[in-house]
Design goal:
Helix content is 15%, strand content 34%. It has 148 residues and is α+β, with helices and mostly antiparallel strands. It has one domain. The radius of gyration is 20 Å and the shape is elongated. The N and C termini lie far apart (51 Å). Bound molecules: zinc ion (2 copies).
Length: 148
């Protein structure tokens, strides 16, 4: 996801980004439909640019019970600060270095990292997931078996 300095200087509002992530190989993470979806508003601030909005959490998790993949599809509020000021960078971990020499910055990996931090403690496709049959291994959410 390339963000151009010219756009940051003008500023954008609720801009929707849909980034093809078919080719990502990031700790084995995959996203629903292989698309990273986010929407951001930018503004010029002291020492850089503030970008705020949301990332759609469409990471595919595997259910602990039925092993099927599922996604939460929840919007996560996100705020990033791009700065050319190294002092600010040292103070604040959420700041991303954006050199004055660069015309654009690629935020794709940073956004994916934010998504990865959000991984739920317990991965369940639904609260009422029935899991797999312990005898035949069938997924009891969509099937009925005759083991019992
Ligand atoms: Zn499940
Ligand atoms: Zn069974």
């Amino acid at each position: 996801m390339l963000v151009f300095r010219s756009d940051l200087l003008t500023g954008f509002k609720n801009k929707l980004f849909e980034i093809d992530v078919k080719d990502i190989d990031y700790f084995g993470v995959s996203l629903d439909d292989d698309i990273l979806v986010c929407s951001f508003t930018s503004r010029v601030v002291k020492n850089g640019y503030k970008i705020s909005g949301y990332i759609l959490n469409n990471v595919l998790y595997n259910c602990d019970k039925c092993l099927d993949s599922f996604s939460i599809n929840k919007k996560m509020d996100t705020e990033l600060f791009l700065s050319n000021n190294t002092k600010v960078l040292e103070r604040d971990n959420n700041t991303i270095y954006f050199s004055d020499r660069e015309k654009s910055i690629d935020l794709k990996n940073i956004l994916i990292e934010i998504l990865l931090v959000e991984e739920p403690i317990k991965n369940l496709c639904t609260d009422t997931c029935k899991g797999l049959c312990i005898s035949c291994g069938i997924n009891l959410n969509n099937n009925i078996c005759e083991c019992n």
